C-alpha cells in the first residue's frame, strides 16, 4: 500500500523480535514493511530471518571504526539509505551517541527487558531475582539520549516465581516482548503514536510514566 511505513530494524543476534515484527507486517497487522535489517555482527541468525523474507540487510561492524562517533555516523548513512519512517532497535547491543539519537529523534524505538525505570542496562532478569521482586517485565520506549531513559510507551508484566533463574524469567519476558513490540510498531505506523518534548503521545494524549494502560 502507498501509505505503508518503511521500517528499519537494528539487531545484534537472534532477531526474535525482528521476526515478530516481520510476521505482523505480513499479516497486515502493521501498516508497514521491514525494508532493511542492519546488524553490527555478521553471521547472526537475525540476518537469516531477513534473507528468508527477501529483506535487504547490511552488516556494519563496530570493530572497524576508531570511535563510537565514527561508527554511528556511518550507521546513520546506512540506515538513511533505506529511507525509513521508523527505526526499531531489536536487541541491538550498542550504546548510541547523542548525534545518532538526535538524527532519528521521534522515530526511534527500543525494547528493554525490565519495567522501566527499574533496571536500566544489562542483566535485568538476575537483578530482579536478586532484589526479591515478585513481578518483572518488559518496556517499549522511545529512545532519547539517556540510556534506557526515553518515555515509556507500553509495558507488560510477568510474575517472578520463587525458584526462577534468569533463563526462566527471560523466557517469560520474551513471550511478552513478541506480543507488545509489534503492537507499538502498529501504533506508530498508524500515525497514532508520536513523541513530543520527550513525552510519548498516543492518540494525542500524553502517556503516563509507565506507558499505556499503566496502573500506577
Compile the SSE list and pairings.
Elements: E1 5-11, H1 16-26, E2 32-39, H2 45-52, E3 57-59, H3 68-80, E4 86-89, H4 98-103, E5 108-112, H5 124-130, E6 135-142, E7 152-159, H6 166-189, E8 193-196, E9 199-202, E10 205-206
Helix pairs in contact: 1-6
Output the radius of gyration: 17 Å
Fraction of residues in β-strands: 15-25%
The largest sheet, given as strand count, sense and whether it forms a barrel, is: 7 strands, mixed
Question: CATH superfamily name?
Answer: Formyl transferase, N-terminal domain
Please list the strands of the largest sheet in the order they lie side by side: 3-2-1-4-5-6-7
State the separation between the terminal residues, measured CA to CA: 39 Å
β-strand number = 10
Rough outline: globular
The helix-strand sequence is: EHEHEHEHEHEEHEEE
Poorly predicted ranges: none
Indicate the percent of residues in helices: 25-40%
Number of helices: 6
CATH architecture: 3-Layer(aba) Sandwich
Number of domains: 1
Summarize model confidence as the mean pLDDT. Answer: 95
Q: Output the structural class.
A: alpha/beta
CATH topology, by name, is Rossmann fold
